[in-house]
Specification:
Layout (H helix, E strand, L loop, with lengths): L5 H15 L10 E4 L14 H9 L3 E5 L10 H6 L3 E3 L2 H4 L4 E3 L6 H6 L5 E4 L8 H9 L3 E4 L11 H26 L13 E5 L3 H13 L2 E6 L2 H8 L7 E4 L2 H7 L5 E4 L13 H5 L6 E4 L20 E4 L2 E4 L9 H22 L2 H7 L1 H4 L2 E4 L2 E2 L2 H7 L6 H5 L3
Parallel strand pairs: 1-2, 1-4, 2-3, 4-5, 5-6, 7-8, 7-10, 8-9, 10-11, 11-13
Antiparallel strand pairs: 6-14, 12-13, 14-15
Helix pairs in contact: 1-12, 7-8, 7-12
């Protein structure tokens, strides 16, 4: 079963509905706000109408900004029929007890926040600075990052699902490119040499990309600068795949053979340099280079940041794809996955009856916490931006 399909989404939501409807909603009345995303190229929405319906049925008030779901093909009417209150002004949505959104709030939106409010969003730390955290701290808000929340299996569901979407979309794009531009299939046909794909990186995005490529029947070679990471990478696949350290002499041999080269660098991967323009230039004319994590770090020296409307550019005779935030190219699917994540977390939240109890006793959700009532409690963020932090366990020990 495809974990990011809408059929999975419906099954998951039905299971959560059974849990939610058995809860005592009188413990704590909540208002959840869903603002319209205005970050460039962000087309996803944090809650779908179906999830809103489940929340409103247990007494949670949901405020949805008009047009919040339009890019994901959800109308205001669908939200209204699900029990949401549609509001025209974004500032009104920010009156909610809990705000759920995709992109971190911008400066204007931070101004709308009030004391003791709860913010749940992605963090995308590469796009932020010290001033962002200082402004949130002054508002005395409690902030949770989607990327850091764990599930009961110790997995980061937001990261995993967005990586899965990115990998599948990348191989779909590669397949369409080969068919339209070179008249080739991505997969294997008896008597024909399969298309060759090189993947740079061995993290989550790379794993899902390779998984999709294997299913399509392509020939794949994976390069990384860590032997241990490559060994762990290989364990995920039932079939043997080619992996190698980033030796220059091997890259110089393999790049001219590749039809597609995909950059999928993980956050914890350190590369001394990007893949050089000379390597890209050595590829067959008309080949495709895809920088899947260009919004976080550039893999190729020749990479160009592109957009949904103009996704590719030519450089040295090679087509380059550099669209950031690839899950937003399939907003309906991505929104369903994100909404399921929120649904799962809030069903657990209701069991505790208050945010403090939820954060204190649910370690998986607490893992996403980086600000507690204005106090920075994430050591890693403090180190990156040279900000003081406090131990959240010591804070919770006081009550």
């Amino acid at each position: 079963m495809n974990s990011i399909s809408e059929s999975f989404s419906g099954q998951f939501q039905l299971e959560q509905q059974e849990k939610l409807l058995t809860l005592d909603s009188s413990k704590q009345q909540l208002t959840i706000g869903v603002p319209k995303e205005d970050f460039e190229n962000e087309t996803r929405v944090s809650l779908t109408p179906y999830t809103v319906k489940l929340f409103t049925e247990i007494g949670i008030t949901v405020l949805v900004e008009s047009g919040a779901g339009s890019a994901s093909k959800y109308s205001d009417m669908e939200y209204s029929e699900s029990g949401a209150q549609i509001v025209e002004q974004q500032k009104s949505v920010f009156k909610a007890d809990i705000l759920v959104k995709i992109a971190p709030p911008n400066t204007e939106q931070i101004g709308y926040l009030r004391k003791n409010q709860v913010l749940i969003s992605s963090l995308n730390i590469k796009t932020l600075n010290q001033d962002y955290f200082n402004k949130l701290s002054k508002k005395k808000v409690t902030a949770i990052a989607l990327e850091y929340i764990k599930d009961e299996g110790g997995i980061f569901p937001f990261v995993q699902f967005m990586s899965e979407i990115t990998g599948q979309v990348a191989i779909n794009i590669a397949s369409d490119f080969l068919r339209k531009k070179k008249g080739k299939l991505l997969g294997r046909i008896a008597g024909n040499t399969p298309s060759e794909i090189i993947v740079i990186g061995a993290g989550e995005v790379a794993r899902h990309t390779v998984d999709a490529a294997i299913k399509a029947g392509a020939s794949i070679k994976v390069f990384d600068n860590s032997i241990s990471r490559l060994k762990d990478f290989e364990k995920h696949f039932s079939t043997k795949i080619y992996t190698s350290i980033l030796y220059p002499e091997i890259l110089e041999k393999e790049f001219p053979r590749a039809d597609i080269v995909i950059g999928a660098l993980s956050e914890n991967t350190i590369y001394n340099s990007m893949i050089s323009k000379n390597l890209i230039k050595s590829m067959k004319k008309g080949s495709l280079v895809m920088d899947l994590t260009i919004d976080r770090r550039i893999c190729f020296e020749s990479s160009k940041l592109t957009s949904f409307n103009n996704p590719t550019v030519m450089s040295q005779g090679i087509t380059h794809y550099g669209v950031p935030n690839i899950p937003s190219t399939v907003p309906r699917t991505a929104s369903n996955v994100i909404s399921n994540t929120f649904l799962q977390q809030f069903s657990s939240f209701q069991n505790y009856g208050s945010l403090n109890a939820f954060l204190k006793y649910d370690s998986n959700f607490r893992n996403g916490l980086y600000l507690y009532k204005g106090v920075l409690v994430h050591k890693g963020i403090g180190e990156i931006f040279n900000l003081p932090t406090q131990d959240i366990n010591l804070i919770f020990a006081a009550f």
